[in-house]
Design a protein that fits this description.
By secondary structure, the chain is of the alpha+beta class. The chain contains ten helices and twelve strands. Strands 6, 7, 8, 9, 10, 11 and 12 form a seven-stranded antiparallel sheet that branches. A hairpin with a 2-residue loop joins strand 11 and strand 12. The mean pLDDT is 88.
Length: 321
């Protein structure tokens, strides 16, 4: 739940000032985070008792963080993409301070500054602080992992996995197949679907098709759902988007979800609410069979067809209750 909260936060509070504010709030909320945030820059052990001030003003300078201990003064500047560095100004106004600088890009080393980037911070914290330290309180772990989720989003940090580009034709044939499945008439003559070619079903995160559901000559669903595969998870699903209309499928399913009336099918898991939408996920067992090297193309099409048709019939069922 906390990671989801931080993910949603990143959609609205994604600028540098917001990142600085939330990082400051982390320092004020978790002693473990605060001490190790400082250690990442300065590699010292005297950060138990310290004062940390957000946007401290002195002269013509206002660094993001000004930190004071009994013996030292520190400042840290936070950046995402902005390259207005203020190095000379900070040197002038804070000649005796130890200085840190962190951004979402690499810059050359600057004398008198500890230069870092956000990906390094996440990797360092996970390997040096979290890994093998089971004594860290759960409340701190949840907060820190939520913050890293936020940070990964606002800084567009991608954790790459080993790639195999030898069979990209599979995605091409997958899209051809779901296009055919969507347009294939149901046995029930009054129920059918069409592909919505006006909406782009492919983006950097997933590949699929938007489609329209008809019952006879009328739209069964207000707001077209989407059917396809997610690149990150490799999973097939149908998504019903939020649509503020009394006859939208989303409103019917949102109500049924709150009343705990939704059920799983033979090919789809119990529909869930995720990222504000209603999701039908294909059952893991069926998807494992789909991806097996021994599964024929006919069986693969049968699995996708049954998943899609069962979900559409269930949408009609919920909307007609």
């Amino acid at each position: 739940m906390l990671e989801s909260f931080f993910n949603h936060l990143s959609n609205r509070f994604y600028k540098e000032n917001a990142l600085s504010d939330i990082t400051w709030a982390m320092c004020m909320s978790s002693e473990i985070f605060k001490v190790n945030f400082m250690k990442f820059f300065f590699d010292e052990d005297n950060f138990i008792q310290l004062e940390i001030i957000r946007e401290y003003s002195k002269g013509n300078s206002r660094p993001d963080f000004w930190i004071k201990t009994e013996s030292n003064e520190y400042l840290i500047e936070v950046k995402i993409h902005d390259k207005n560095h203020h190095f000379e100004q900070y040197d002038y106004d804070f000649p005796n301070a130890k200085k840190g600088y962190i951004a979402n890009y690499q810059i050359e080393n600057i004398e008198g500054y500890s230069i870092k980037n956000w990906r390094e911070f996440i990797d360092w914290f996970k390997n040096e602080v979290l890994k093998g330290h089971e004594n860290i309180p759960e409340k701190d772990l949840l907060l820190i992992n939520g913050y890293f989720s936020y940070l990964t989003s606002v800084c567009s940090i991608i954790n790459y996995e080993k790639m195999n580009l030898s069979n990209l034709k599979s995605l091409y044939h997958f899209n051809l197949m779901i296009n055919e499945i969507i347009k294939t008439p149901f046995i029930e003559s009054e129920l059918y679907c069409t592909v919505n070619t006006l909406l782009k079903g492919i983006n950097e995160y997933r590949s699929g098709k938007y489609f329209t559901i008809f019952k006879g000559d009328t739209h069964l669903v207000i707001g077209d759902p989407w059917f396809g595969v997610c690149y990150e998870t490799g999973k097939v699903f149908i998504e019903i988007y939020p649509f503020n209309h009394p006859k939208s499928a989303f409103m019917f399913f949102d109500t049924a979800l709150k009343e705990n009336r939704l059920q799983k099918g033979n090919y789809f898991d119990k529909p869930i609410k995720k990222d504000g939408s209603i999701w039908f996920n294909i059952i893991e067992e069926k998807f494992t069979i789909f991806n097996s090297n021994t599964t024929s193309i006919e069986t693969q099409k049968e699995i996708l067809t049954n998943f899609f048709n069962e979900a559409i019939r269930y949408i009609r069922e919920i909307m007609e209750e």
